[in-house]
Each structure stands twice: as structure tokens, then as C-alpha cells.
Amino acid sequence: PMKDGVIADFKYRLFFTLSVGYIAAMAALGMAHMMTGGKISFKWLKNPACIIAAAYLAFCCVSAAASPYGWRTLTGGTRHDGLLTAAIYVVTFLLLSRILRPKRYMLWLLAGSTAVCCAVTLIQLTGGNPLGLYPAGTDFYGAYVDYAGEFAGTFGNVDMGMAVLVGAALAMAAGLVRRTSKWEWLMLVPLAADVYVIFRVGVWSAILALAVGTVIALPALSKNKKAAFAVSGGIAAAAHTAHRRHARIVPAVHDLLVHHL
Q1: Element (H, E) at 122
Q2: Looking at beta carbons, which pairs linking 152-157 to residues 24 or more positions away fall under 8 Å?
Q3: Dihedral sign, CA of 38, 17, 67, 206?
Q4: Which of 92, 203, 231, 258 is the most exposed place for a label (fewest CB within 10 A)?
């Protein structure tokens, strides 16, 4: 089997090839359009999200210029999370925001994939190892003791995974606030599982991001402020209750699975 470093290098090369290839293709199409007399409008860059993304990249550039690590700041070393990667993220986001618009089916796809991720994580929290993420004979609770690092879900890295789940939870909550069909109340199921997993795994930066995002974003997105605050309060209450009860439920389930089945 490949070592972790080899896997990481392969994944980054694939990401770099696809992303830079997309950016180059879009640049070539834009140049060809202008050479044939076409005009390109950049008014879409005035979108608040685009402005924030550009400001983030500018901040990264300033940080990299002031860094004592020199050229390694560009590549990010073995983790590949340097300025180059940040620039690819931002440029790709800006290009995609020019042509893509959110659709309701995308929200359902997000809810489905989130449900799968949460199901895997819940199995891991009961001592299971469905994806072979942990070394043989160990489980989620062996982090930093039986093996280096902490892993959960379908993402592997627990911090990255919880960050994605926070974004998914906020997107689903916003979708509920702006629901267009009574069937969209079904989205409460993956949303509840999502929030439960975030609190149970216990990455505090993710919990803070979820709390701040819920309180600030939902009322801002909603035309019905009362409904938004109600959903925000419901998420907070459900998360608090789930977190307290899980402390008693999971050890019991784990004991049942490991010692009695």
C-alpha cells in the first residue's frame, strides 16, 4: 500500500492538474472571445462573495510576503496548503461564480452526501471502522494514542471534515428558511444528523463557526426574520440536547457492539 505522503502528493498533483487546467481553459476561451470582437464584463466581481474572496487572497499574499519561511510559503511544504493553493481556490471560485447559480437540486445532493458522511461518522463513533480509516484493532477513540492524528467521516482529516459539515449545515438551514415545498422539511433529518455529529466529534472551531454562522447568516438570508430566528434557536437547542445525551448513549452502544455481539 502507498504511504500517506505518496497519497497526499498524488491527490495534490491531481487537484493541481484539474484546477490549473480549468483556469487555463477559461483564460483561453476569454482571450478567444475578445479577439473575435467580443466583450467581457467584470461587473459580477462586485458581488460581496467575490469581494470577500479577493480580499482573502490579498491577505494571504501579504502574509506570505511577511513570512520568514520564504519560498516554502508558496508551496506549503508537505501539506500543500501554501499561497499557490489558496490562489487556485480563489481564482476557481471567481470563475465558477461567473457561470454557476445555485439550484434546489444541488441542495438535495448536498443533503444526501451529508447524510452518508454522518452515517459513516456515527458508525465510527460506536467503535466501528467501516472505511478502514484506523489501524487494525483501533477506532476513533484511539486518536493521538494508538495512532497519530484524529480522523472521522468520509474526509479522513477531522478538522477538514467538520469544516465541510458546518458549511453543509448552514446551507441546509438556509434552504429550510427559504423552502419552496413542504417536502423540504425532510431536510431536517440530515441537518439534525449533521449538527449532532459536529457537536459529538467536538472540534471546537467548527462548533464556534456553526454557532456564529447560524445566528448571523440565517436572519440575514431570510425574508421572514421570525422563522430564521426560530430555526436558529431550534438548531442550537437540538445540538445542545444531542450533545448531552450522546455522552451517555454512545458508550452504551459501543459496549453492546464490542462486548456483546
Answers
A1: helix 104-125
A2: 152/121, 152/124, 152/125, 152/201, 153/117, 153/118, 153/120, 153/121, 153/124, 153/197, 154/116, 154/117, 154/120, 155/117
A3: positive
A4: 258
Question: pLDDT by residue (tens digit) across 146-180?
Answer: 888 888 988 878 998 999 999 999 889 888 877 78
Report how far apart, in Å, the C-alpha atoms of 140 and of each of 6, 201, 204 are: 23, 10, 17
Angstrom distance (rounded) from CA 191 to CA 236: 12
Take residue 142 and report the three cell numbers written for it.
484511539
Extract the C-alpha cell encoding 39: 466583450
All residues at 6 or more sequence positions from 89 whose CB lies less than 8 Å from its CB, including other chains: none
C-alpha cell recorded at residue 41: 464584463
Cell 504511504 locates to 3
**pLDDT tens digits along 72-81:** 899 888 778 8
Contact indicator for 161, 153 with CB cutoff of 8 Å: yes
Instruction: Please list the residues that pair with 157 across neighbouring strands.
Output: 151
44 or 162, higher pLDDT: 162
**Which residue, 28, 87, 92, 97, is CA-closest to 61?**
87
- Altogether, the residues listed in the chain come to a count of 261
100 residue type, one letter: L
DSSP string, 182-214: GGGGGGHHHHHHHHHHHHHHT-HHHHHHHHHHH
Partners of residue 143 on adjacent β-strands? 147
Cβ–Cβ under 8 Å, residues 240 and 211: no
